[in-house]
Amino acid sequence: MAWDEWEQLKAEAAKAAEARMSLASAAPDGAGGGGKLKHSGGPWTSASGAAGMLQTSTQTSRSRLRPAHEGIASGAAGLASVAMLNAVLDSWEKRLAAVRGECDYLENALLKVAKEMGETETAVKSSLSAVKTAIAGERP
User: Fold this and answer.
1) How many CB atoms are closer than 10 A to CB 17?
2) Global pTM?
3) In angstroms, what CA-CA distances link 30 with 23, 35, 41, 139?
4) Separation of alpha carbons 96 and 66, rounded Å
């Protein structure tokens, strides 16, 4: 066997091995090895759902915050702590609104990644099938 043929066989074997590799996170138990990486319906979609749930719970908390403070000003009129409490309330409302906005952005961005990765997964799977077929066809 000539040196060039040997190098070509090594390169093809490396390609085939690379095609069989999977990420540790692809296995259901996180141990790696036997799992198949699935982007769509997997971690990206799950993360998007978590961002959506956080957005909803943040809005619920924010909507309950002001009514919980109603009546405090009249019951504690003249105390300096009321002004401080109102400042804290305003600060929390702004923070929760910012968190809600970030979660809205993340939910949409993560869904977009899931869609794009799912489409990429299909294209990669198709191209790897062609490599496997080509390698199998070259064997005696």
Assistant:
1) 9
2) 0.51
3) 9, 9, 17, 35
4) 12
